[in-house]
User: Fold this.
Amino acid sequence: MTSFSQFPGKEEHTLRWLPFVAAIVTVTTASPLAWDKSFGTFLFLISVYVPTIALVCIGLCIWAGVERKSPRARSIVISLVVTLTLIGGTFWALPRVKDQLRFQAWSLTHDDALRGFADKDSIVLDWESWGMAGMENDAYLVSNPSDNLAEDGGASEWLRHLGSSCEIVASKRMRRGIYIVATYNCPLR
Assistant:
């Protein structure tokens, strides 16, 4: 009968899956948290997610230290690096492309609605809102046929046509004549 120790390559390959599992778990847990701007998500992030990730990383460091002379240590260290890199990358990149991704998906099924707003300055829909206790931000998908909302004076002209005294604190062009604008403590509707 052969024993497990007679297969020298078996132990080396036992942890090759660990970096892939770490990558999948990291992306699937970090993406929803990076996507949502709500206060509840923020509380969950700082009270549960960050401490859990810190404990996992500490555990991987200790495990890598214990296995430092074993070929398995390499997979453990790679898993640690992959986890930290993907968390940082997800929280950096996803908020930057989120609105564009969401708009592309929405516009595929609502192109007729966008055509209905193509010839007038108007609010197409409430896009997103976040904040708490009097510090509310509201974002809207808006139509601006002159396509000058991001230029100097364009936002004030657009607001005047809309009949609003709010101030636009951020605007992002989605495509010609369509923007996402954000206001602070001043809903447009």
